[in-house]
Amino acid sequence: MLGVSRHVVSGLIAAGFVMPSRGPRNEYRFAFQDVVLLRTALQLRDARIPPRKIIMALARLRDALPDELPLTGIRVSALGSDVAVRTGPSQWDAVTGQLLLDFEVAEIKGNVVFLDTQPVQKNLAGQAQEWYALGEQLRTSDASGAEQAYRKAIALSPQPFYAAYVDLGALLCEMQPRCEDALQVFDEALSHFPEDAVLHFNRAIAYEDLGRLEDAERSYQRCLELDPSYADAHHNLAMLLERRGDPQGLVRHLNAYRRLTT
């Protein structure tokens, strides 16, 4: 199978890493994630890592990871005679259990039977929270990874995940020029939380960054209808109305901002 020895495949199956079904001729039929993991084992074998060490390293990795994160979501490579987890310039010895997660999965090519599988439904709310926490950790160092983590949290959460929507939208607005994507996130969030002032405020900022000033003004106004004490909305709307040539609106909202902040 992909050049991986029978001993390694049998060890991975025995350890529960891969769970192939059987075909009509009693052959193994592997799902996509199984194939990715087997390909990783092949790469380690080609680097002359002993089969026992491959299985031991993968076992340590599996035990160290949160339940919801598949082992195939990690980029594993050989470093000399050791098995390492790699992300960017950093490498971590798999045997120590010190991991830095990477979301890239290499493309698989070849004559392989791919089967659809359903992930184990295990405490989806907890899984969503862990993905959200990962997004928070990655936010300042890996914006792309943080985006993926927030989206995974939203997808897994049994209930609309308010904080993940807010933080994902804000992150996308910071990743110029992703404000259009941020608007989609805020619109989806508002379908679940239509009376939330923060979401209307954030959507107004995205509109303003895109130069859609009329839409921005409406969103600021809606924010203030829901929360008249939202000082930052008064301030931003005052500055926007000045740009739009409305001095009376500027004075009104600037005075409101000053009353709320002094």
Automatic annotation (TrEMBL):
InterPro entries: CellSynth/LPSAsmb/PSIAsmb, TPR-like_helical_dom_sf, TPR_rpt. TPR repeats lie at residues 197-230. SMART domains: TPR. It comes from the Bacteria. Keywords: Repeat, TPR repeat. This is Tetratricopeptide repeat protein. It comes from Paraburkholderia tagetis. The lineage of its organism: Bacteria, Pseudomonadati, Pseudomonadota, Betaproteobacteria, Burkholderiales.
